[in-house]
Amino acid sequence: MIACDAQTNLFTISTRRTTYQMKADRHRVLLHTYYGPRVDGADLSYLIRYADRGFSPNPNEVGDERDYSLDTLPQEYSTCGVGDFRLPCVEFEPPDGSRLADLRYTGYERRPGKYALPGLPAFFGGAEEWETLVIFLEDAAAGMLVELYYGVQEDCDLITRAVRVVNRGRETVRLRRCASLCLDFQRGDLDFITFDGCHVMERCLNRTPLRPGIQSVESVRGTSSHHHNPFVILCEPEAGEEWGLCYGAMLVYSGNFQAAAERTQLENNRLLLGINPYHFCWTLEPGESFTAPEAALICSPDGFARMSCQFHRALRRHLIRDPYQGERRPVLINNWEATEFDFDAEKLVDIARGATGLGIEMFVMDDGWFGARDTDRSGLGDWSVNQKKLPGGLEALVPRIQALGLQFGLWVEPEMVSERSQLYQDHPDWTLGAPHRPQTRGRSQLVLDFSRPEVRAHIYQALRRILDSADIAYLKWDMNRSLSDVWSAAAPAGRQGEIFHRYVLGVYEVLDRLRQDYPRLLIEGCSGGGGRFDAGMLYYTPQIWCSDNTDAVDRLRIQYGTSFCYPVSTVGAHVSAVPNAQTGRTTDMATRGVAAMPGTFGYEMDLRWCTPEERETIRRQVAFFKEHYALIQTGDYYRLSDPFRNGTYTAWAHVSQDRREVLVCLVTGSTHAAQPFQTLRLRGLEGSARYRADSGQIFTGDALMHAGCPIPLLPGDYQAVQIYFRAE
Ligand code: DGJ
User: Fold this and answer.
1) Of residues 366, 534, 554, 604, which has the active-site annotation?
2) How far apart are CA 264 and CA 272, in angstroms?
3) pLDDT value of position 66
4) What does the radius of gyration of the chain's CA atoms come to, in whole angstroms?
5) Ligand 1 in reach of 369 Cβ (< 6 A)
6) Is the separation of the CB atoms in 718 and 553 below 8 Å?
7) Ligand 1 touching residue 413 (CB < 6 A)
8) Do the Cβ atoms of 447 and 405 come closer than 8 Å?
9) In what order do the strands lie in the sheet with 30-37?
10) 529 lines ligand 1 (CB under 6 A)
11) What is the arithmetic mean of pLDDT over 288-313?
12) Which ligand 1 atom sits closest to the C-alpha of 548?
């Protein structure tokens, strides 16, 4: 619910359990008064304190009112260079070379439904579930209008934010930065949680108390990156899964980002989230506008579990689009780890045949099927079938796969080109790269300049030709390097600061066209695993390959971090062969299955080499996954242990929305003699309900949540167990 008081300029957003409030004061400065547990019917601006602080200057119009400073007041959207020395949201550079921004409130609008952002991914929904508030701010001197958008989805406690900047003046203005979200907290004792790592070890949780100064995570790689995720949490120091105030903030964007938290002289905190100002400069001619990507906030008054469940719901219902919002996705087998580039049609058909009789529903042909693609040093860009490997092309291969009862899926990497390719020979200037400088290679490939419409058009036509040539149900859209040498041959010098962002917009545009032209095509995002695992991509690709690390034990950590924001249905996870290619570790087939189930589920191996016992395990795994699909994919997901702190076991549970069904999953660590007896306390159950375990034993919800469920003794390293409960 949005309440606007035009007399006092007080704006109060209420969700089921939270309140967000701001107020334009007598100087028309928009102050942030409160965000936290729900408080009804109160003007919370009494929380704002005024004090004359040395070296915190005063706006001209306040005269000698020395206790009024933009530097000390909580701002809703911070200014630049006019007296607030904390992190600025926005910076304007008119022809006079000044780089300032001073914003004053001019009005508001309330609209039913959720606003949309042209060309950008955004949460969506109709007037029955969403409301929009737009607040207008202006910088009169620069002639700039700033529109702050707030989307409110009460049920999920979700508040989305976006910003549109319009040049209403007569001069060209360069926009040097434009954050999507600013959140000023009138407290300093908060922890900053980020999700960091590297290729094959993404989204590992890091938590540190905020110290004075700025702490930030960011990407300048052109993608959201393996290294940091555009999702962060600020929380009370004592916050845990079930207690403590926490705030999750995500950017619905797939390119360079910055998430920065600043602890200030007043022991307060400011959180800023948005496009990274690094190499960003957007020219706005009079009348033109720029829209910053959407950010989304969820505050949970009682811990991370609730916050995650709310993010999961919000993403599932309001970001993932039909038909794959609700439809079951296929259990698949992918040939990459089994063959890499070394395959031909016969080998692929044999692998597919090996997957029959197990309940597997789709075969995905990975990298290596096109152009001169026998290694990762050539072929990208030439999107026609390699006839030596696959005589007769997809037209011949796909029916053979389908005859085995499997749907067909295909790997592509449309944003890249190999120098050893016809496309590069024909259009070397279609790659990113500055003049008179040798281009940096990544995985021996260059990046196509997706900021250029003719490049996008060419690639789109190539994709169309492939998709129209056979019955292709699924596309794995990969992207295997970071952007460097970011310079476009098609843009003038003064516009090069737009290329990083225009590249991302270009990727979104092609993906959106694909979605429109092939509405039933299931697209899986991938960037060397989880290098672009973000809500921006999820708007176009309802699932993303979570990591190139398929080791079951490492995956528990990667998936643990991922789960803080992203729902199970978005997490690409497969069982792969042992010893694992990344770690050399050997785990049981049963364990690998349990670790891959909180995801899209499938296999990444040649099943022909499995023993009859392993095949039987696989058959049962697939059947189990399908039987509990709705519970796993749409139930609430609860982390029951922290794999970074607990080496003994990693556990989690899926609880159906009506709390009638529960699936507990647990994988042990390396074993030791004389194992202690342990119990696992569950979360999210109905206290008074009676739950029958698959063993027949009956427990009350309260017993399972407070006293716990006994963990069976599991001798051996990395053993797994799943316990299914149903309320009687
Ligand atoms: C990186 C992906 O993450 C892998 O799964 C595989 O598709 C390779 N690329 C193929 O080059």
Assistant:
1) 534
2) 13
3) 97
4) 26
5) no
6) yes
7) no
8) no
9) 2-5, 10-14, 18-24, 30-37
10) yes
11) 98
12) 3
- For the residues 295-308, what does the mean pLDDT come to? 98
Residue 323's φ and ψ, nearest 5 degrees, are -85, -5
What are the residues whose beta carbons fall under 8 Å from the beta carbon of 639, sequence distance 6 or more?
A: 241, 304, 305, 308, 560, 563, 652
Is the CB of residue 478 below 6 angstroms from any atom belonging to ligand 1?
A: yes
Nearest CA to ligand 1 atom 11: 367
Which residue, chain included where needed, has tokens 């811990």?
303
Pairwise CA distance, residues 355 & 406, whole Å: 9
Identify the pLDDT of residue 171: 97
- Work out the mean pLDDT of the chain and round it to a whole number: 97
Q: Is the pLDDT of residue 232 over 90?
A: yes
pLDDT score, position 279 = 97
CA distance 234 to 47: 20
For residue 394, what pLDDT is reported?
A: 98
Domains of the chain as residue ranges with CATH: 2-318 (2.70.98.60), 332-418+454-481+523-632 (3.20.20.70), 639-727 (2.60.40.1180)
Distance 428 CA to ligand 1 centre (A): 25
Cβ(651)–Cβ(661) below 8 Å: no
- Judge whether 667 and 587 are in contact, CB under 8 Å: no
Report yes or no: 250 and 295 within 8 Å, Cβ to Cβ: yes
- CB 547 within 8 Å of CB 529: yes
For the Cβ of 366 lying below 6 angstroms from any atom of ligand 1, the answer is yes
Q: What is the Cα–Cα distance from 282 to 278, expressed in whole angstroms?
A: 12
Contact 545 CB / ligand 1 (< 6 Å):
yes
CA geometry: angle 579, 583, 587, nearest 5 deg: 45
Going by the DSSP 8-state scheme, the letter that residue 367 receives in this structure is: S
pLDDT band with cut points at 50, 70 and 90 for residue 621: very high
Residue having the nearest C-alpha atom to atom 1 of ligand 1? 528
For residue 647, pLDDT over 90 is answered with: no
Percent of the chain scored above 70 by pLDDT? 100
Peptide bond into 399 cis (omega under 30): no
Judge contact between 636 and 241, C-beta under 8 A: no
25 carries an active-site annotation:
no
pLDDT digits (tens, 9 = 90+) for 149-187: 999 999 999 999 999 999 999 999 999 999 999 999 999
Average pLDDT value for residue range 422-428: 98
Report the SS3 class of residue 363. strand
Site of tokens 């619905």: 252
pLDDT, tens digit, for every residue of 125-158? 999 999 999 999 999 999 999 999 999 999 999 9
Q: Quickly count: other Cβ atoms within 10 Å of residue 215's Cβ.
A: 17
Task: Give the residue-averaged pLDDT of 393-417.
Answer: 98
State whether the beta carbon of 524 lies less than 6 angstroms from ligand 1.
no
Q: How far is the CA of 411 from the centre of ligand 1 (A)?
A: 8
DSSP, res 448: B
pLDDT of 675 reads: 87
Share of the chain above pLDDT 90, in %: 99
Alpha carbons 368 and 342: distance in angstroms, whole number: 8
- Judge whether 534 counts as a catalytic residue: yes
**Global confidence as pTM:** 0.97
Mutate to test the pocket of ligand 1, among 335, 342, 545 (most ligand atoms within 8 A of CB): 545
**Ligand 1 atom 2: the closest Cα is on which residue?**
528
